[in-house]
Amino acid sequence: MINFLILPILIPLITGVLLIFANKSIKLQRWIAGLSAFLTVIVAALLVQKVRNDGVQTLNLSNWDAPFGITLVSDMFSALLVLTTSIVALACVIYSFKGIGEDREKFHYYSAVNFLIVGVNGAFTTGDIFNLFVFFEVMLMSSYVLIILGGTKIQLRESIKYILVNVISSALFVISIAYLYSVVGTLNIAHISVRLSEISGVSQPGIITVLGVLFLIVFGLKGAIFPLYFWLPGSYYAPPAPVMALFGALLTKVGVYSITRTYSMFFYQESGFIQQLLIILAILTVIAGIIGALAYWDVKKIVIYNIIVAVGVILFGVATMNIDALTGSVFYLIHDMIIKAALFLLVGLMAAIAGTSNLRSMGGMIKRYPGLGWTFFLAALALSGIPPLSGFVGKLLIVQGGFSSEHYWGAAIVLISSLLVLISIMKIFINGIWGKPRSFETENSVPYRKLMIAPVMLVVLSIFYGVGADFVYPYISQAAETLTNANIYIDAVLKE
Amino acid sequence: MKTNDLILQTATKLILFLIVLFSIYIFFAGHYTPGGGFVGGLLTSGAILLLLLAFDLKMVQNILPFNYLYMVALGLLFAIGTGAGALLFNTPFLTHAFGDIHLPVLGELHLHTATLFDLGVYLVVVGVTMTIIQTIGGDE
């Protein structure tokens, strides 16, 4: 079946459309959304195995040959991310059954979630730079719906900023693509890579640097790197927990993926300016994120700032362009998607029980909710990278790669950042879960047990991901191999 | 104040059908010549919009009692279905097929699956435009 790699995009797309018809019956919507999310996970897992066995998969849409039509490409990197996305989506859909409220469910909530997954999976899979823009738009359009759905005051205020930032960055994205197209005359990512290596040797290497910086700005806005993350803490704070989990786990990661992809395909042959820039920005991102995470006393804000830290850590690994660090980055990226989704769901649950997300008015939850407390504790340890949990292997490889490519300062800051991440997240544990038990007015209306299913599922998965690192490692290193050697990707697409 | 829109209403009754007919013509002008589902859909929504301007929202909803959101979804199903049909023949997604068919009354026909895709686009465009207009227009 040659169309296999499109199924993780196609299934959510068809589901999203069918769900529009089913808007009258919430029960039917839940069944359809849940089953299709489950089916997507299975298909994505099969895809990963297929890529493992048969190498990079490509599909020329409409049967137009490679550089002329739109090509979808699934290498191990993208297949793994598609699988992780599908798992996170499944968890968020399960959480939404009890956690989002019937009002939102009636107004096409599940459709929007499915279209969001179409956009994210599509962005991970496409092998065409303009098509990447299109999938970005699909993803953003659905995220506009999700961020405003419900129409509370804070949502309306933040969505204006969110839409404004994203419209501007989308415009800049098209401009950058046009600029790139005028230089190389093609949109196929593999073909662009070939053309760029031809011109970089001959004349005007400066123009590649300009292009690289432009793309860095565009993807940096989506992926929240140092000076461009200003919109993120406010916007992600507004929507309810499952939407926040989807955004936090997936949207910034698409930006990170795009930076990694363009950087490893286009700009690896550039003079080194972009590499320096990326390393400096990554380190500054880590520092800015840490400051935010330590400063706030609001559980949601603390986790949101931890997204920014993770983006910095991953990009530092990517920027060193060293096989160890890249493997670490891929490892950490997947870990981070799972654990951030789990943390957002847990924090959302805590906020729902306490009726506020202010840490100062929480406390003593472990007395009445021991399951929540210990799940959160495990997630916190995994986040900061305590062995043998899943954050450890990734960070170890990134730091190792940083030292061996002589970026001592960067690697040291990444190391220190784990400690500070631990402090910031333990602050939630000590003040919110530990401490003197309080009683909350809102807690009895929260369907605690049913809401715990999704985060427990994710945390268990993350533990297996860490403990079973030996089993996962071959997949990850295959992904990193494609990233360090652009020719694998190019040969698969252009069939030379 | 009651405005006198007799001329507009009378003209609309005639022009409406011309625009709809023209939009159908444009729709079938299809994928080789200028035209297609998008333009056709916009023209049709233009016609309905004219009806809205000449009369009022309630009356138009009586004449055309569609749920435009379902129309969008139906259009999407057509478009995706055309693309996904290629999966049955193990050809890449979105691969189209065409052929010449002889029908007794109509004569030689050149049929192309792109028309089905365009029908989807047409429905989506009409549905989306009308949803937007009704939402804004229905807001007091």
TrEMBL record, chain A:
Membrane spanning stretches: 6-23, 30-48, 68-95, 107-124, 130-151, 163-187, 207-231, 243-260, 272-296, 303-325, 337-359, 371-389, 409-430, 451-476
Compartments it resides in: Cell membrane; Membrane
Keyword annotations: Antiport, Cell membrane, Membrane, Transmembrane, Transmembrane helix, Transport
Signal sequence, start to end: none
Entries under InterPro entries matching the protein: CPA3_Na-H_Antiporter_D, NADH_UbQ_OxRdtase, ND/Mrp_TM
Domain of life: Bacteria
One Pfam family it belongs to: Proton_antipo_M
Family membership noted in the UniProt record: Belongs to the CPA3 antiporters (TC 2.A.63) subunit D family.
PANTHER family reported for this sequence: NA(+)_H(+) ANTIPORTER SUBUNIT D1, NADH DEHYDROGENASE
Name under which the protein is recorded: Multicomponent Na+:H+ antiporter subunit D
Organism this protein belongs to: Cytobacillus purgationiresistens
Automatic annotation (TrEMBL), chain B:
Keywords for this protein: Cell membrane, Membrane, Transmembrane, Transmembrane helix
Keyword Membrane annotated: yes
Chief location bin: membrane
InterPro entries in UniProt: CPA3_antiporter_subunitB, MnhB
Occurrences of domain Na+/H+ antiporter MnhB subunit-related protein (ranges): 7-131
Pfam families: MnhB
Record membrane topology: Multi-pass membrane protein
Transmembrane parts of this sequence: 12-32, 38-55, 67-89, 109-133
Protein origin, superkingdom: Bacteria
Compartments where located: Cell membrane
Keyword Transmembrane: yes
NCBIfam families: PRK12573.1
Similarity field: Belongs to the CPA3 antiporters (TC 2.A.63) subunit B family.
Name of protein: Multicomponent Na+:H+ antiporter subunit B
Native organism: Cytobacillus purgationiresistens
